[in-house]
Design goal:
Number of helices: 12
Shape: elongated
Number of strands: 36
Structural class: alpha/beta
Largest sheet: 8 strands, mixed
Length: about 625
């Protein structure tokens, strides 16, 4: 519905309006008198008309007139992906002056077997919300139907009464989290939430390159799950998460790309003031894992027992040169207390500059060498404890003997292993590039004796990973986009010492360069973006650098992980709708006065014509 009437208004008002009007009247009087007094009465009428026209044009340029048009408010229905045509039909019945917009080429939902196929609704294209808003500055209502609009565009709707008719959350994998890069024999743990709208029994499977490796059964509407595997070979693999009915029908399938790196072998030294079973079992486990281990146990004042596994013999002198070759040093507290000043100085330098890791095994005295780190211990009467497997990445817990101390929580102390009640039993402090840890567990080997080798392996693997010297690759890439999709923007971060690096993304058939921008105050950190053209494995590299390994990542197809992306979209629109709740729509007639400025070019043209005639007329 369009206008029901219109009149003239001015953009200037008050004192400015009367000032312009007064000056215009004075100028008009002056020009009319001059036009009348001039000789050549033949052109007198033309001079008078041009004088009046000139003053009129100048007045309009100053007052800036606009048309006031009385309009009936309009309603916009925005069709977003998987919209329900029946909802749109209902809205059209209760609203007047409806304009339907198709947002980003939205498609209607697929009809069920009981519903008949409907044709797409006739609509206007709308690549973004801004296009809709530009069509009218005074929408009576805006209805969003379907999965919703992009979260970044929701603030553009703040000025308008907006009503949301969103789809329910779809069935399928809603949230999934896992480590995308692992080492051989590390546990691939895939955790997530499955939305089961129909409350049917669904079998979830983790399928590896060789077939299904783990499964679980869910039957509730919104149920968490955990599926695991332990990859045995290095490489790039595509796992799949599958949901099936108990009859074997596939409900959904999602890709899980994983990069499995070769297992890192560490160089460790262990020095004890006396022989212990803890050291014996740990040495055996480390050797089975392929690590290089040197063990010294002090038997008496002048007698020691040295053992070397997967390495040549060494002198156990903590020199700067020997510490550079070491990844982790494990000492008991008594031996650590006896270290000389030179050895302590070398250890401190290796911690700060080389990234060395040190683990101190506390004894009954509770003494920890303060020259390496300060760990305040609190006495306790508890002599047994239950380790929380969750604290070191595995389900379950285990009862062990505990020293009569607890590690007091303080700023800078990080927990590695906790009790089931939450107190810290193994913790560490960061020292420069390295770290110093303490353990209050004397007999972790009891896990092996009780038939819990996986728990023992997870316990020590976690400690080694956190404390051992970190690898510092020349170029370190991070893909910041959680789900990189083909034909969509992908954000990455590079850490490197190279000046002005240029990024390269290497696909199956082409290599594309992209620009990297240095982050302010972080000279080693660079950020960039690119648009991968095809799905599949890609590599990130620095142009011209052939010495650093490439970083692999996977680009998903547009159809991959559609359920969690749709869920996030619907939830973002639901949250916006709750914060900006509007009254339910009613059949109302809303009118407003629309102000439409008259183009000033017309008046400027009139001014030029009149002024031109008045200038030429005396010369004719």
């Amino acid at each position: 519905m369009r206008k029901t009437g219109w009149n003239i208004d001015w953009q200037l008002d008050g004192t400015e309006f009367w000032l312009v009007t007064g000056i215009s009247l004075a100028l008009l009087l002056f020009l009319v008198i001059q036009a009348w007094r001039k000789p050549n009465p033949k052109n007198r009428v033309a001079r008078l008309l041009c004088s009046i026209g000139l003053v009129f044009a100048l007045t309009m340029l100053g007052l800036k007139p606009e048309l006031q048009k009385l309009r009936t408010a309009r309603t916009a229905i925005v069709l977003t992906d998987h919209y329900d045509p029946s909802v749109v039909d209902s809205l059209r019945m209760i609203e007047d002056s409806v304009y339907i917009y198709n947002y980003q080429e939205a498609q209607p939902k697929q009809p069920t077997s009981q519903e008949r196929q409907t044709r797409p609704l006739a609509s206007l294209p709308a690549p973004d919300i801004a296009r809709i808003i530009r069509q009218s500055v005074n929408w009576k209502k805006i209805h969003i139907v379907g999965n919703g609009v992009e979260p970044a565009e929701l603030p553009k709707l703040a000025k308008y009464p907006t009503h949301f008719y969103l789809n329910p959350l779809p069935s399928g994998f809603q949230e999934v989290a896992y480590r995308k890069t692992l080492q051989v024999q590390e546990v691939l743990e895939t955790k997530g939430v499955y939305q089961n709208r129909h409350h049917q029994e669904v079998v979830l499977l983790l399928v590896g390159p060789g077939g299904a490796v783990d499964s679980t059964l869910v039957s509730h509407q919104n149920e968490s799950f955990t599926l695991t595997d332990r990859p045995k070979e290095a490489g790039k693999y595509l796992y799949h998460l599958m949901a099936k009915t108990k009859q074997g029908d596939t409900l959904s399938t999602e890709r899980i790309p994983v990069v499995i790196d070769p297992k890192r072998t560490l160089r460790l030294e262990m020095v004890n003031s006396f022989q212990t079973f803890e050291t014996k079992y740990l040495k055996n486990w480390l050797s089975q894992e392929g690590h290089s281990v040197a063990v010294r146990s002090i038997i008496s004042k002048n007698k020691v027992k040295d053992e070397f596994v997967n390495q040549r013999s060494i002198t156990f002198q903590f020199t700067q040169a020997s510490l550079k070759q070491m990844d982790l040093l494990i000492l008991d507290a008594e031996y650590a207390q006896s270290l000389s000043g030179r050895s302590l100085a070398n250890l401190q330098q290796a911690l700060q500059d080389e990234g060395l890791g040190i683990l101190i095994q506390v004894d009954e005295t509770g003494a920890v060498p303060s020259a390496l780190a300060k760990f305040p211990l609190v006495s306790t009467s508890v002599t047994k404890t239950r380790l929380s497997g969750v604290s070191f990445g595995i389900q379950g817990d285990f009862e062990l003997k505990q020293l009569p101390y607890l590690l007091q929580t303080q700023l800078g102390t990080l927990a590695l292993v906790r009790k089931t009640q939450g107190q810290t039993l193994v913790g560490y402090n960061i020292k420069g590039l390295g770290g110093v840890g303490v353990s209050l567990i004397e007999e972790s080997y009891q896990m092996l004796l009780e038939g819990k080798p996986r728990l023992y392996a997870a316990y020590w693997s976690h400690i080694l990973k956190q404390l051992a010297k970190k690898q510092n690759p020349k170029n370190s890439w991070q893909v910041n986009t959680s789900i990189p999709l083909s034909q969509e923007k992908c954000l990455v971060t590079l850490n490197t010492d190279q000046p002005k690096p240029i990024g390269e993304v290497i696909g199956r058939s082409n290599t594309t360069e992209f620009y990297l921008q240095n982050k302010l105050h972080f000279p080693q950190k660079w950020t960039g973006s690119f648009w991968p053209q095809k799905s599949g494995w890609h590599q990130l590299a620095v142009k011209g650098d052939t010495t650093a390994p490439e970083a692999s990542f996977y680009v998903y197809d547009q159809r991959d992980w559609e359920t969690p992306r749709t869920t996030q979209l619907i939830q973002a629109n639901q949250q916006w709708a709750r914060k900006h709740a509007k009254v339910s729509p009613k059949r109302t007639e809303t009118v407003w006065m629309d102000h439409e400025p008259i183009p000033l070019g017309y008046f400027f043209g009139l001014f030029l014509l009149c002024a031109g005639f008045l200038w030429l007329e005396p010369k004719l």
